[in-house]
Amino acid sequence: MPDQPANRKGVPQARHAHLLMSGGARAIDSLLPGTLSELLAAGAHQHQLPHHLVRCRSGWLSRRLAGSQYLISCSRSLVDWVVHRQVLANPKVVLREATDVDALLGDRAKVTGVRVRDRNTGEQHDIEADLVVDATGRGSRIQHWLPALGVPEAREEVVDSGLSYATRIYQAPPARLRTARSSTFSRRTDARSRPDRDDHSAGRRPLAGHPVARGAANAGG
Ligand SMILES: Cc1cc2nc3c(=O)[nH]c(=O)nc-3n(C[C@H](O)[C@H](O)[C@H](O)COP(=O)(O)OP(=O)(O)OC[C@H]3O[C@@H](n4cnc5c(N)ncnc54)[C@H](O)[C@@H]3O)c2cc1C
Q1: Which residues are near ligand 1 (CB < 6 Å)?
Q2: Which residues are CB-contacts of 206 (< 8 A; sequence separation ≥ 6)?
Q3: Which of 9, 16, 51, 136 is 20 to 30 Å from 67 by CA-CA measure?
Q4: Which helix (H) or strand (E) holds 216?
Q5: Domain-embedded: residue 103
Q6: Residue 133 counted as domain residue
Q7: Total domains in the fold of the chain
Q8: Separation of alpha carbons 74 and 214, rounded Å
C-alpha cells in the first residue's frame, strides 16, 4: 500500500472525481469508527445538502432524501488510504501486498480458499478460509474461477447506465483553496424530443489527498 494517498493500478476509476454520499459515509463510519473525522482532518470537504432534497434527473424524480444529508468531496485515493489505515489498525487483519488471487480452492460443493501469486517472485501458494469474499471489483474473474471448480457460471445482471465521464485535474491558487466548494451544473435534455439522451452535468470539486493537484473538473452525460 502507498504510504500516502496515491492512485493505484488496480483502481483506474480513482483518477475521476468521486463523491461519497452521507449514506455511504455513515455506513463506513459505523464499521470503522473515526473514518469520517480522519477524512475531514486530512482536508476532505463536507457539503450539506438541503433538507429533504428531491432531485429531478432525466425526467425522473428521485426518492426524497430523508432529513439532513451531505456529500464528502475528496480524492478517491484519500478515501481508500484512510479506510485501509483504519482496517489495518485491527491486529486481526493481515495485508498481503503485491499479491494476486489466481484461482479459488474447493469443489462444486464449497469454496475453501484461494490460490495467490506473489507479483514479484511469481510464487504461488494456497490460503484456506471458511469464507471467501470476491472484492476484486468490475474486472473480477469469478466467471472463470467458478467453472474451474465445476460450478456453473453465475447468472449476471448488467445495468448499463450509458454514462460517460471525463475528468481533468487543476492546481488551484492557494488562496482559492481555503474557500473551495464543490459545485455541479446540469443541463436537462428534452426527454420528448431526445428520449435516447440523458441529462448532462459538469462539476468541480476540491480534491484533498490527490497526489499532484488540488481540484478536479469533470463532465458526464
Ligand atoms: C468514472 C467513475 C466515477 C465514479 N464516481 C463515484 C462516486 O462519485 N462515488 C462513488 O461512491 N462511487 C463512484 N464510482 C464507483 C466506484 O468507483 C466503484 O463502485 C467502486 O470502486 C467499486 O468498489 P469495489 O471495491 O467493488 O472495486 P474496486 O474499487 O475496483 O477495487 C477492486 C480491488 O481489487 C483488486 N484486485 C482486482 N483483481 C485482483 C486479483 N485478482 N487479486 C487481488 N486483488 C485484485 C484491485 O487492485 C482493487 O484494489 C465511480 C466509478 C467510475 C468508473
Answers
A1: 10-11, 13, 16, 18-20, 24, 100-101, 135-139, 165
A2: 45, 73, 74, 172, 177, 180, 181, 182, 214, 215
A3: 16
A4: strand 215-220
A5: yes
A6: yes
A7: 1
A8: 9
Range of the domain at 126: 99-148
Q: What is the pLDDT of residues 27-75, one digit of tens each?
A: 999 999 999 999 999 989 898 888 888 877 666 788 888 888 999 988 8
Domain for residue 111, yes or no? yes
Q: What is the pLDDT of residues 115-157, one digit of tens each?
A: 999 999 999 999 999 999 999 998 899 999 999 999 988 888 9
Closest C-alpha residue for ligand 1 atom 6 = 18
Alpha-carbon distance of 6 to 23, in angstroms, equals: 25
pLDDT tens digit sequence for 173-198 = 777 666 666 677 666 666 555 555 56
Q: What is the atom index within ligand 1 of the atom nearest the CA of 16? A: 1
Tell me how crowded residue 164 is: count the other CB atoms within 10 A of its CB.
10
Which residue has 459538469 as its cell numbers? Answer: 202
Establish if 108 belongs to a structural domain.
yes
Gap from CA of 81 to ligand 1 centroid (Å): 13
